[in-house]
Known about the structure:
By secondary structure, this protein is mostly helical. Helices cover 69% and strands 5% of the residues. It has helices spanning 8-18, 23-38, 44-51, 55-67, 83-105, 112-119, 125-140, 142-159, and strands at 42-43, 71-73, 78-81. Strands 1-3-2 form a three-stranded antiparallel β-sheet.
Amino acid sequence: MEKDFHTVRGYENINLTRKLLTPSMEDYLEMIYRCSMEDEVVRLNKIAQMLNVRDSSASKMMKKLGELSFIKYERYGLIILTEQGINIGKYLLERHNIIRRFLEYLGGKEDVLQETELIEHIISSETVENIYMLNMFFEDNQDVLVKYKNFKENKINELSPKSK
Length: 164
């Protein structure tokens, strides 16, 4: 029997020691990258608004991200991604989109954004790559995706108390 079990918080703490960025830092960096795709320069109040946080909270995070050299930031001013910030932000957005697409393929409709946000911070990059490959497989094999959806619908109907 496995003896290396931990609580969710325990696994989070283990992963934090392996990672430079906290989940919150990842969320900010991803959002800065998203916004920078529209405008070269991003303002703090836009990031705060997009993430539903106070300007003061966003300002503290900008200071941290600046200290890590992911952004150039002037207090309550402009946010500019460094080359490193662009690379990581791009990866974070791609990871988000890969997971969201996978959940949509599974048939998720409600709470896909929330589930994506929760999942993206806890899975490994290897798992993200595997999900990406599965997404590509579904895209290249639409017939398999249709078979899955039909299978799922039939099983739900079979297991539904109404059908008994």
